[in-house]
């Protein structure tokens, strides 16, 4: 992985052998990384992530995937675009602040390969970010090439553990 740009590593043979029935996911807020683990607890994929900013922190704890959607748009964060032109009129319409400009429609931010962890809107999904930078509103933004692979090896009920401490020594792929 590049020291400056988000990336991911995969142990190909172990990844291919991992079943969604046995997989689990660990996320370290300290490391800003996620690991897909197989049934033996071995890391088969490591990915850079971005978690919540101060005031919108990603919660720590044990979760299970509640919903999985390959294509999802946020109903909370987005922008207003022209109804006919689809040109952006208001770039950031966080939580539908104020009245929408006339002739516009709300377009939620795209969150591909969505995996819901809480019913209050926290989940894992593809998202753009700078490496080692917290930049979400509580979700776990995952490097774009890694999240489809994690999605493929997960299912409803897959355990996800989010911890504050470093896990690089325990799960880091090298």
Strand/helix succession: EHEEEEEEEEEEEHEH
What's the CATH class of the largest domain, please?
Mainly Beta
Rounded to the nearest angstrom, the radius of gyration is 17 Å
Enter the CATH topology name of the largest domain. Answer: L,D-transpeptidase catalytic domain-like
By DSSP, the count of extended strands is 13
Helix fraction, binned, reads under 10%
Structural class determined from secondary elements: mainly beta
Low-confidence stretches: none
Globular, elongated, flat, extended or rod-shaped: what is the shape?
elongated
CATH second-level architecture of the largest domain = Beta Barrel
How would you state the average pLDDT, rounded? 92
Major beta sheet summary? 10 strands, mixed
> What amount of the residues lies in strands?
35-45%
- Helix count equals 3
Distance between the termini: 10 Å
Overall domain count: 2
**Can you identify the CATH superfamily of the largest domain?**
L,D-transpeptidase catalytic domain-like
């Amino acid at each position: 992985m590049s020291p400056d740009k988000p990336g991911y590593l995969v142990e190909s043979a172990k990844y291919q052998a991992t079943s969604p029935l046995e997989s689990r996911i660990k996320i370290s807020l300290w490391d800003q990384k996620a690991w897909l683990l197989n049934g033996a607890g071995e890391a088969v994929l490591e990915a850079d992530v971005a978690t919540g900013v101060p005031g919108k922190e990603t919660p720590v704890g044990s979760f299970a995937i509640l919903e999985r959607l390959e294509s999802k748009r946020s109903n909370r964060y987005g922008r207003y675009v022209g109804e006919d032109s689809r040109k952006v009129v208001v770039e950031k319409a966080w939580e539908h602040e104020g009245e929408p400009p006339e002739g516009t429609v709300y377009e939620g931010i795209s969150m591909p390969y969505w995996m819901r962890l809480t019913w209050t809107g926290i989940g894992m999904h593809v998202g753009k970010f700078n490496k080692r930078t917290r930049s979400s509103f509580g979700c776990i933004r995952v490097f774009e090439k890694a999240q489809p692979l994690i999605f493929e090896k997960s299912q409803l009920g897959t355990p996800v553990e989010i911890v504050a401490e470093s896990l690089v020594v325990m799960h880091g792929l090298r």
